[in-house]
Amino acid sequence: MPERDGYIPGVPCWVDTSQPDPERGAAFYSDLFGWEVEDVMPPGSPGQYFIGRIRGLDAGAIGSIPEGAPPMAMWNTYIWVDSADDTAAKVAEAGGKTLMEPMDVMDSGRLAVFADPEGAALCVWQANQHKGARVVNEHGALNFNSLNTRDAGRAKAFYGAVFGWNVLDLPGGVQMWTLPGYGDHLAESNPDLREQMAEGGAPAGFIDVVAAIVPIPADQPDVPAHWSVTFGVDDADAAAARATELGGSVIVPPFDAPWVRMTVLADPAGATFIASKFVPENASLATAGDTASAA
Questions:
Q1: The domain spanning residue 120 has which CATH number?
Q2: How far apart are CA 62 and CA 170, in angstroms?
């Protein structure tokens, strides 16, 4: 897959997981995804931050739970912005909350953490030296990000105001977040992308998709609004089996859905994520419900 060298504002660009035992988490994900991991924190730092790499390219990270953050393992979604400080002002105006004020992360970039009006936490990244995920859409790499919500209408107003996102309605009640101009950006490095997507049966407007909206089922009253992370895998069934062998668990067994075969997994500390294999033959399948909202 082509290497990424940065993103445009409004696009999910990075993921990491906060872990009570980052070394154990690093061992789990390095085996499951084939990551090469390196703790990039300076000697004597109070926490750890393992960058996971594929072919030497940054793919994701495993870090200590930040001071003051909920004491639970979880995956975090980062969205690229021009200014973390300006975004903080937009979040406040749109009814969100600041969980962590904008701060510099050494020379890597500037970070802030917010909660949308429903409480779903998200990070924003103002890049300096660190340009986000350099490899995507392959085994062990970031494939997709989804907002799991009970109030899609409120979410649409918030994310539209903060990031300029629109909503693409697809058959079966599926909704996707789109960013105007994102397809043009992608086509700069792949001029044949629109033709390739059309040949693959992608619906009109799909080239601008940056994330998904997943309704939280009514029979999951204890699941809070949250952002979930999907990784590409070569074999969803094998990923589920290996995750179990490594001390993780299968939350939702592998199943077929439009375009993919996927499974919802949890690492040994309980952080959930989705492993998804692209299956073009599944393009015509009826929408397989919202099972992935368990992540």
A1: 3.10.180.10
A2: 34
